Amino acid sequence: MISPMRKKKFVWYFAFLVIASGTLVSCGNSSDSELIGNSVKLSDFEGVSRSDAVGFTIGDRGYVGTGYDGTDRLTDFWAYDPAKNTWIQCADFPGEGRNGAVGFAVGDKGYVGTGYDGIEKLKDFYQYDPSTNTWTQKADFPGTARYGAIGFGIDSLGYLGTGYDGNYLKDMYAYNPTTDTWKHVTSVGGSKRRDAVAFVINGKAYVGTGVDNGIYEDDFWEYDPATDTWTEKNRLSDATAQSFDDDYAMTGSNRVAFAIGDRGFVATGGQGVAGTDIWEYNSSTDLWEQIHDFEGSGRTEAVGFAIGNVGYITTGRSSSYYFDDLWGIHPDDTYNEYD
Q1: How far apart are CA 20 and CA 291, in angstroms?
Q2: Of 235, 240, 334, nearest to 288 (Cα)?
Q3: CA angle, 179 as apex, 205 and 181 as ends, to 5°?
Q4: Is the residue at 16 inside a domain?
């Protein structure tokens, strides 16, 4: 569904003109422009540096745990409190230490499952209750054991699918926390994929990016749980003769995603690189625009989540260097290199 081009948000610095001795003189640089969006460094993640962890938001806190530090697969779990800009250690995840797992929230509970423990692909599944700081093992994910899947929560259900079990996958399952049961739902449209992203806007999920057989996928899909249908949206690359997608470059793997209001955001990762780009999606127009780059070090396999009007990016790696910094992403603020 192709829409007219949407203008990017720019802050323009205009040259001023000085007339001297009958000559028109231009002072300054009329071509300088700067994308809107600002990253603010916050209190470092308190666990060890890691990549390929999971994250989710419950209420006014973000939760991060599991992952791989280059030597060990981890089970520790942490909550970030933005009001105090501090981290609080939670009860350890009770399953095997793992990376490449899935984390999402449904209501006031968090869920973590699947992944890779260094030997086996996994399909066990756990619920976290922040009110009691306890974990409870739930019914195993019914699909094949896998890693590099996606997960999201919509209303009272959780969803988990895609990934890699030795083959690339596109299946999708819905989890009902009330009955602790799973149901196979319509598979993601288009390509199979692993290490993709998903975010939720107004009760619909959006899925894209990832890799399949060495190809970075550019198809992008909207899932409506009310009808159990997937609808293809504009592609994530320069895929048409129209001008709106001339600069599109969202394909890649191991990116992060989060939603703020009626907008989705995809950041870092990329096509085998440790990226810094951030893209904003408008679900009303089905158009993307690039905002100011992430100001931390370029990375892949990071964690992203949102609390209120702020997105957060933490952990990840660049080659064999693992990160533990935390950044707040303010998509509507003017870039400030000094904050």
Answers
A1: 39
A2: 235
A3: 65
A4: no
Please say whether the beta carbons of 75 and 84 come within 8 A. Answer: no
Give me the amino acid identity at 203: G
The CA distance from 41 to 141, in Å, is: 37
| CA 58 to centroid of chain Cα atoms | 16
Tens-place pLDDT, residues 210-247: 999 999 999 999 999 999 999 999 999 999 999 999 99
Q: Is 20 exposed, middle or buried (CB count within 10 Å of its CB: 0-12, 13-18, 19+)?
A: exposed
CB 50 within 8 A of CB 56: no
* Residue 54 placed within a domain: yes
Look up residue 65 and give its amino acid. G
Cβ–Cβ < 8 Å for 223, 207: yes
Three-state DSSP state, 267: strand
Q: Is residue 295 part of a domain?
A: yes
- Are 278 and 287 in contact, with CB atoms under 8 Å apart? no
The structure tokens listed for 295 are: 């100001």
Of residues 32 and 131, the one with the higher pLDDT is: 131
Distance CA 93, CA 305 (A): 19
Given a contact cutoff of 8 angstroms between Cβ atoms, the answer to whether 109 and 58 are in contact is yes
Cα gap 220→208, rounded to integer Å: 5
Q: 34, 289 in Cβ contact below 8 A?
A: no
Phi, psi of 193 (to 5 degrees): -170, 155
What pLDDT band is residue 338 in, cutting at 50, 70 and 90?
confident
Q: Cα-atom radius of gyration of the chain, to the nearest Å?
A: 21
Residue 62: inside a domain: yes
How is residue 251 annotated by DSSP? -
Give the CATH number, domain containing residue 174: 2.120.10.80
The whole domain housing 194 covers 39-330
Strand order in the sheet with 86-90: 54-58, 61-65, 77-81, 86-90
Query: Domain tally for the chain?
Result: 1
Which H/E stretch holds residue 193?
A: none
Per-residue pLDDT tens for 247-280? 999 999 999 999 999 999 999 999 999 999 999 9
